[in-house]
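Lecture 7 notes. Example A: sequence first, then its C-alpha coordinates.
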Amino acid sequence: MLIISRLIGSAALFGALAIGPHRIIVQGPASLTDRDLGIAGLSMNSDSAQASSLLGAPQSVRHHDYHGNDEVSHLTDWTYSGLTVSFYENGKFYSATITGRSRTTARGLRAGDSIKRLTALYGSPISMDSLSAVYHFAPPGPHPSNWGMIIHLQRGVVRRIVVGVIGWVD
Protein backbone atom coordinates (compact mmCIF):
# COMPACT_ATOMS: atom_id res chain seq x y z
CA MET A 1 0.00 0.00 0.00
CA LEU A 2 2.88 2.37 0.78
CA ILE A 3 4.36 1.73 -2.67
CA ILE A 4 1.05 2.52 -4.37
CA SER A 5 0.71 5.70 -2.30
CA ARG A 6 4.22 6.81 -3.30
CA LEU A 7 3.54 6.02 -6.98
CA ILE A 8 0.35 8.10 -6.92
CA GLY A 9 2.15 10.96 -5.18
CA SER A 10 5.02 10.81 -7.69
CA ALA A 11 2.59 10.77 -10.62
CA ALA A 12 0.77 13.81 -9.22
CA LEU A 13 4.06 15.66 -8.74
CA PHE A 14 5.22 14.75 -12.26
CA GLY A 15 1.88 15.92 -13.68
CA ALA A 16 2.16 19.23 -11.85
CA LEU A 17 5.72 19.73 -13.09
CA ALA A 18 4.75 18.82 -16.65
CA ILE A 19 2.08 21.51 -16.63
CA GLY A 20 4.77 24.13 -16.16
CA PRO A 21 4.31 27.74 -15.02
CA HIS A 22 0.60 27.89 -15.86
CA ARG A 23 -2.07 29.08 -13.51
CA ILE A 24 -3.01 26.87 -10.59
CA ILE A 25 -6.74 26.42 -9.99
CA VAL A 26 -7.54 25.59 -6.37
CA GLN A 27 -10.20 27.91 -4.94
CA GLY A 28 -13.28 26.46 -3.28
CA PRO A 29 -16.66 27.85 -4.34
CA ALA A 30 -17.33 29.82 -1.15
CA SER A 31 -14.07 31.76 -0.88
CA LEU A 32 -15.71 35.16 -1.50
CA THR A 33 -19.00 36.32 -0.05
CA ASP A 34 -21.16 39.20 -1.24
CA ARG A 35 -19.69 41.22 1.66
CA ASP A 36 -16.26 40.90 -0.01
CA LEU A 37 -17.50 42.57 -3.19
CA GLY A 38 -17.30 46.14 -2.00
CA ILE A 39 -14.83 48.72 -0.78
CA ALA A 40 -15.09 51.92 1.25
CA GLY A 41 -18.70 51.24 2.28
CA LEU A 42 -19.80 50.47 -1.29
CA SER A 43 -21.19 47.09 -2.33
CA MET A 44 -22.27 45.29 -5.46
CA ASN A 45 -25.71 46.90 -4.93
CA SER A 46 -24.39 50.47 -4.61
CA ASP A 47 -24.72 53.29 -7.10
CA SER A 48 -23.03 56.61 -7.83
CA ALA A 49 -25.38 58.53 -5.50
CA GLN A 50 -24.31 56.35 -2.57
CA ALA A 51 -20.65 56.69 -3.59
CA SER A 52 -20.97 60.47 -3.66
CA SER A 53 -22.56 60.42 -0.21
CA LEU A 54 -19.85 58.15 1.26
CA LEU A 55 -16.76 59.41 -0.54
CA GLY A 56 -17.59 62.97 -1.56
CA ALA A 57 -16.67 64.52 -4.88
CA PRO A 58 -14.03 62.61 -6.88
CA GLN A 59 -10.69 64.16 -7.77
CA SER A 60 -11.32 63.27 -11.41
CA VAL A 61 -13.97 61.67 -13.62
CA ARG A 62 -13.35 59.67 -16.80
CA HIS A 63 -15.89 58.19 -19.24
CA HIS A 64 -14.79 55.23 -21.38
CA ASP A 65 -15.95 52.05 -23.09
CA TYR A 66 -14.86 48.63 -21.85
CA HIS A 67 -14.90 45.85 -24.44
CA GLY A 68 -15.27 42.46 -22.79
CA ASN A 69 -17.30 39.26 -22.96
CA ASP A 70 -18.49 40.12 -26.49
CA GLU A 71 -20.16 43.31 -25.33
CA VAL A 72 -19.34 46.95 -24.72
CA SER A 73 -19.92 48.54 -21.32
CA HIS A 74 -20.05 52.32 -21.05
CA LEU A 75 -18.29 53.07 -17.77
CA THR A 76 -17.52 56.10 -15.66
CA ASP A 77 -14.49 56.10 -13.35
CA TRP A 78 -14.37 58.29 -10.26
CA THR A 79 -10.85 58.67 -8.89
CA TYR A 80 -10.02 59.38 -5.25
CA SER A 81 -6.75 59.12 -3.34
CA GLY A 82 -5.75 55.44 -3.58
CA LEU A 83 -9.10 54.38 -5.04
CA THR A 84 -10.94 54.36 -8.37
CA VAL A 85 -14.65 53.46 -8.42
CA SER A 86 -16.24 52.49 -11.74
CA PHE A 87 -19.95 52.64 -12.55
CA TYR A 88 -22.12 51.41 -15.40
CA GLU A 89 -23.82 54.02 -17.57
CA ASN A 90 -26.93 53.76 -15.33
CA GLY A 91 -24.85 54.63 -12.23
CA LYS A 92 -24.73 51.10 -10.75
CA PHE A 93 -21.48 49.89 -9.17
CA TYR A 94 -19.15 48.05 -11.57
CA SER A 95 -15.86 47.79 -9.68
CA ALA A 96 -13.48 49.46 -7.25
CA THR A 97 -9.70 49.48 -7.63
CA ILE A 98 -7.43 50.01 -4.64
CA THR A 99 -4.03 51.46 -5.50
CA GLY A 100 -2.95 53.03 -2.21
CA ARG A 101 -2.29 51.77 1.31
CA SER A 102 -4.95 54.03 2.80
CA ARG A 103 -7.76 51.83 1.38
CA THR A 104 -8.53 48.23 2.32
CA THR A 105 -10.78 45.41 1.22
CA ALA A 106 -13.56 44.19 3.51
CA ARG A 107 -11.10 41.74 5.09
CA GLY A 108 -8.27 44.27 5.45
CA LEU A 109 -6.04 43.60 2.42
CA ARG A 110 -4.24 46.68 1.06
CA ALA A 111 -1.69 47.58 -1.59
CA GLY A 112 1.78 46.74 -0.29
CA ASP A 113 0.72 43.58 1.55
CA SER A 114 2.49 40.27 0.93
CA ILE A 115 1.11 37.18 -0.80
CA LYS A 116 1.30 35.47 2.59
CA ARG A 117 -1.13 38.05 4.03
CA LEU A 118 -3.37 37.74 0.96
CA THR A 119 -3.73 33.98 1.37
CA ALA A 120 -4.10 34.29 5.16
CA LEU A 121 -7.08 36.61 4.60
CA TYR A 122 -8.69 34.94 1.55
CA GLY A 123 -7.28 31.42 1.26
CA SER A 124 -6.10 29.98 -2.02
CA PRO A 125 -7.21 31.79 -5.18
CA ILE A 126 -8.96 30.10 -8.08
CA SER A 127 -6.03 31.13 -10.27
CA MET A 128 -2.60 32.53 -9.48
CA ASP A 129 0.66 33.28 -11.23
CA SER A 130 3.52 35.69 -10.57
CA LEU A 131 1.45 38.66 -11.82
CA SER A 132 -2.02 38.12 -10.37
CA ALA A 133 -4.34 36.17 -8.12
CA VAL A 134 -8.03 35.74 -8.92
CA TYR A 135 -10.88 35.02 -6.52
CA HIS A 136 -14.33 34.34 -7.94
CA PHE A 137 -17.69 34.97 -6.26
CA ALA A 138 -19.90 31.90 -6.68
CA PRO A 139 -23.36 32.72 -5.33
CA PRO A 140 -25.69 29.90 -4.36
CA GLY A 141 -28.06 28.80 -7.08
CA PRO A 142 -27.84 27.98 -10.76
CA HIS A 143 -26.74 31.38 -12.09
CA PRO A 144 -23.03 32.01 -12.67
CA SER A 145 -21.37 35.21 -11.57
CA ASN A 146 -18.85 37.51 -13.22
CA TRP A 147 -18.05 39.14 -9.85
CA GLY A 148 -14.85 38.59 -7.96
CA MET A 149 -11.49 40.04 -7.05
CA ILE A 150 -8.25 40.32 -9.01
CA ILE A 151 -5.08 41.11 -7.10
CA HIS A 152 -2.23 42.43 -9.24
CA LEU A 153 1.18 41.40 -7.91
CA GLN A 154 4.73 42.58 -8.37
CA ARG A 155 7.60 40.60 -6.86
CA GLY A 156 5.30 38.91 -4.35
CA VAL A 157 3.65 42.15 -3.20
CA VAL A 158 0.07 43.33 -3.77
CA ARG A 159 0.16 46.37 -6.08
CA ARG A 160 -3.50 46.82 -7.04
CA ILE A 161 -6.78 45.20 -5.99
CA VAL A 162 -9.84 45.16 -8.25
CA VAL A 163 -13.14 44.15 -6.65
CA GLY A 164 -16.39 43.84 -8.60
CA VAL A 165 -17.00 42.68 -12.15
CA ILE A 166 -13.95 40.70 -13.26
CA GLY A 167 -15.16 39.83 -16.73
CA TRP A 168 -15.97 36.14 -17.06
CA VAL A 169 -18.88 33.87 -16.30
CA ASP A 170 -18.36 30.14 -15.66
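Example B, a different protein, same format:
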Amino acid sequence: MDTVDPYESIGFHCSLTYRSFARVLENRLNETGIKPSQFFALSHLIALGPMPQGELAAYLSTSSVTVVKLIDRMERDGWVVRKPSVEDRRVKQVLLTKKAEAQWKGLAVIARSVIEQAHQGITKKEINTVKKILKKIRNNLNT
Protein backbone atom coordinates (compact mmCIF):
# COMPACT_ATOMS: atom_id res chain seq x y z
CA MET A 1 0.00 0.00 0.00
CA ASP A 2 1.29 3.44 -0.92
CA THR A 3 1.51 5.90 1.92
CA VAL A 4 2.09 9.61 2.07
CA ASP A 5 4.24 11.04 4.82
CA PRO A 6 2.69 14.42 5.68
CA TYR A 7 6.08 15.65 6.88
CA GLU A 8 7.30 15.40 3.28
CA SER A 9 4.64 17.92 2.21
CA ILE A 10 5.36 21.64 2.10
CA GLY A 11 1.60 22.19 2.44
CA PHE A 12 1.59 20.26 5.71
CA HIS A 13 4.48 22.37 7.03
CA CYS A 14 2.70 25.56 5.93
CA SER A 15 -0.40 24.42 7.82
CA LEU A 16 1.59 23.73 10.99
CA THR A 17 3.34 27.08 10.67
CA TYR A 18 0.08 28.95 10.10
CA ARG A 19 -1.46 27.36 13.19
CA SER A 20 1.56 28.43 15.26
CA PHE A 21 1.30 32.00 13.95
CA ALA A 22 -2.45 32.09 14.61
CA ARG A 23 -2.09 30.70 18.15
CA VAL A 24 0.56 33.25 19.16
CA LEU A 25 -1.35 36.09 17.46
CA GLU A 26 -4.57 35.10 19.22
CA ASN A 27 -2.80 35.09 22.61
CA ARG A 28 -1.33 38.54 21.99
CA LEU A 29 -4.59 39.97 20.63
CA ASN A 30 -6.55 38.64 23.62
CA GLU A 31 -6.43 41.94 25.51
CA THR A 32 -7.67 43.92 22.48
CA GLY A 33 -10.93 42.02 22.02
CA ILE A 34 -10.01 41.30 18.39
CA LYS A 35 -10.06 37.73 17.12
CA PRO A 36 -7.47 36.58 14.55
CA SER A 37 -10.15 36.31 11.84
CA GLN A 38 -11.12 39.94 12.49
CA PHE A 39 -7.46 40.97 12.51
CA PHE A 40 -6.88 39.30 9.12
CA ALA A 41 -9.96 41.03 7.67
CA LEU A 42 -8.77 44.39 9.01
CA SER A 43 -5.27 43.82 7.64
CA HIS A 44 -6.62 43.20 4.13
CA LEU A 45 -8.82 46.29 4.32
CA ILE A 46 -5.90 48.40 5.60
CA ALA A 47 -3.59 47.14 2.85
CA LEU A 48 -6.05 47.11 -0.06
CA GLY A 49 -8.78 49.56 0.90
CA PRO A 50 -12.55 49.10 0.76
CA MET A 51 -13.70 46.01 -1.10
CA PRO A 52 -16.83 43.97 -1.77
CA GLN A 53 -17.74 41.29 0.78
CA GLY A 54 -17.12 38.54 -1.77
CA GLU A 55 -13.62 39.80 -2.50
CA LEU A 56 -12.83 39.90 1.21
CA ALA A 57 -14.07 36.31 1.51
CA ALA A 58 -11.66 35.30 -1.26
CA TYR A 59 -8.71 37.03 0.46
CA LEU A 60 -9.61 35.27 3.72
CA SER A 61 -10.07 31.92 1.92
CA THR A 62 -13.51 31.50 3.44
CA SER A 63 -17.09 31.20 2.27
CA SER A 64 -19.43 34.11 1.63
CA VAL A 65 -21.66 32.95 4.49
CA THR A 66 -18.73 32.90 6.93
CA VAL A 67 -17.50 36.34 5.88
CA VAL A 68 -21.02 37.80 6.25
CA LYS A 69 -21.13 36.56 9.86
CA LEU A 70 -17.62 37.94 10.46
CA ILE A 71 -18.57 41.34 9.02
CA ASP A 72 -21.80 41.34 11.06
CA ARG A 73 -19.76 41.00 14.27
CA MET A 74 -17.18 43.56 13.13
CA GLU A 75 -19.91 46.02 12.17
CA ARG A 76 -21.66 45.48 15.52
CA ASP A 77 -18.35 46.18 17.32
CA GLY A 78 -17.66 49.32 15.28
CA TRP A 79 -14.69 48.09 13.20
CA VAL A 80 -16.30 48.23 9.74
CA VAL A 81 -19.35 49.53 7.92
CA ARG A 82 -21.08 48.24 4.81
CA LYS A 83 -22.16 50.56 2.03
CA PRO A 84 -23.78 49.77 -1.30
CA SER A 85 -21.36 49.87 -4.20
CA VAL A 86 -21.78 52.86 -6.51
CA GLU A 87 -21.42 50.55 -9.55
CA ASP A 88 -23.87 47.87 -8.35
CA ARG A 89 -26.13 48.59 -5.39
CA ARG A 90 -26.58 44.82 -4.80
CA VAL A 91 -22.89 44.61 -3.89
CA LYS A 92 -21.90 45.66 -0.38
CA GLN A 93 -18.54 47.38 0.04
CA VAL A 94 -16.77 46.85 3.36
CA LEU A 95 -15.05 49.94 4.73
CA LEU A 96 -13.00 50.56 7.85
CA THR A 97 -14.34 52.88 10.52
CA LYS A 98 -12.39 55.66 12.20
CA LYS A 99 -12.13 53.35 15.23
CA ALA A 100 -10.38 50.66 13.16
CA GLU A 101 -8.02 53.16 11.56
CA ALA A 102 -7.19 54.68 14.96
CA GLN A 103 -6.52 51.34 16.61
CA TRP A 104 -4.66 49.73 13.70
CA LYS A 105 -1.28 51.08 14.80
CA GLY A 106 -1.48 49.18 18.10
CA LEU A 107 -2.69 46.02 16.35
CA ALA A 108 0.15 46.29 13.85
CA VAL A 109 2.67 46.48 16.71
CA ILE A 110 1.27 43.20 18.03
CA ALA A 111 1.47 41.57 14.60
CA ARG A 112 5.01 42.84 14.09
CA SER A 113 6.04 41.28 17.43
CA VAL A 114 4.71 37.89 16.27
CA ILE A 115 6.60 38.18 12.98
CA GLU A 116 9.79 39.18 14.78
CA GLN A 117 9.49 36.19 17.11
CA ALA A 118 8.91 33.87 14.15
CA HIS A 119 11.90 35.27 12.24
CA GLN A 120 14.40 34.90 15.11
CA GLY A 121 17.59 33.25 13.87
CA ILE A 122 16.55 33.49 10.21
CA THR A 123 18.24 35.88 7.80
CA LYS A 124 16.35 38.31 5.54
CA LYS A 125 17.77 36.39 2.58
CA GLU A 126 16.31 33.12 3.91
CA ILE A 127 12.93 34.78 4.53
CA ASN A 128 12.90 36.19 0.99
CA THR A 129 13.83 32.78 -0.44
CA VAL A 130 10.95 31.12 1.42
CA LYS A 131 8.54 33.80 0.16
CA LYS A 132 9.69 33.30 -3.45
CA ILE A 133 9.33 29.53 -3.22
CA LEU A 134 5.88 29.74 -1.63
CA LYS A 135 4.76 32.18 -4.33
CA LYS A 136 5.91 29.71 -7.01
CA ILE A 137 4.00 26.91 -5.28
CA ARG A 138 0.84 29.08 -5.11
CA ASN A 139 1.22 29.89 -8.80
CA ASN A 140 1.65 26.18 -9.62
CA LEU A 141 -1.48 25.30 -7.69
CA ASN A 142 -3.56 28.18 -9.07
CA THR A 143 -3.03 27.29 -12.73
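Note on Example B: The two ends are 30 Å apart (CA to CA). The chain has one domain: 6-141.
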